[in-house]
Amino acid sequence: MTEELRKTYHEELESVREAIVRMAGVVGETIPRGTEAFLSGDLAEAQRIIEDDDAIDAMSVELEERCYQLLALQQPMASDLRAITTALWMNAEIERSGDLMANIAQATRRVYGSSIGPRIRGLIAQMSEEAARLMRLAIDSYAEGNSGLAVALDDIDDRLDDLHLDAIGAIFESNREQAFDLQVGVQLALVCRFYERIGDHAVNMGERVRYMVDGWLPEHSGALRAKARLAEFGVVPDET
């Protein structure tokens, strides 16, 4: 690869990285917007969020195509290959997080006019804040190539998991007290699950960042354990 081609190649790699960060920023901004629309019953804002998801989808499609072109035309190796495959993974995790906020916007219409108690409202607000924080930290770890922060995301996500459990418990309690009908309870449970899933996507992003920086994935640990168990029985895995 000539010097000029290499320069153009690395400029495109950096452009892809910047596009990933921008798309994550757009999705991150959608989280508080969608939460406010849901809690206030703002149907107009909910509709805007649903429509804005089309723009996120368009960004995702363009990014994916750029990554495939780099893979096909440049045939990258080692760290460059990990950077491109990580961008593809990050793209999918971010896009799915945007879909989840569109789902919450749709739920806004389904529970419109229903009374949601202060405890559940408070827990939803806290879940939203934690989901947005995890998204910010995940993209920070990517932008900075910070493997330590990427690894920490799994532990940071515990707070969101705990809030999710509290929220589900509060929904069951309110349903027993007949504070709202079953359909509203189902929608509230789904909304809480959507926030929890955004946290999971952020943790997945952290795993991909660790792969990009260190070449490690969680599956590597499982593969080593499987290999060790086979070795106990004298079985040598086929390395081909």
The first-level CATH class name: Mainly Alpha
Please mark out the parts with pLDDT under 50 across 5 or more consecutive residues, or reply none: none
Question: Which fold name corresponds to the CATH topology?
Answer: Methane Monooxygenase Hydroxylase, Chain G, domain 1
**Rough outline:** globular
Q: What would you give as the CATH superfamily?
A: Phosphate transport system protein phou homolog 2, domain 2
- What is the number of strand segments? 0
Q: Tell me the series of helices and strands, N- to C-terminal.
A: HHHHHHH
Helix share bin:
over 70%
Q: What is the tally of helical segments?
A: 7
Give the count of structural domains: 1
- Class inferred from helices and paired strands: mainly alpha
What do these coordinates show?
The protein is an all-alpha fold and 240 residues long. The protein has one domain (2-232): Up-down Bundle (Methane Monooxygenase Hydroxylase, Chain G, domain 1), CATH 1.20.58.220. It is built from seven helices and no strands. The protein has helices spanning 3-40, 43-74, 78-110, 118-144, 147-176, 182-214, 218-232. α1 (3-40) runs antiparallel to α2 and α3 runs antiparallel to α6 (182-214). The chain is globular and about 70 Å long.
In short:
The protein has helices spanning 3-40, 43-74, 78-110, 118-144, 147-176, 182-214, 218-232.
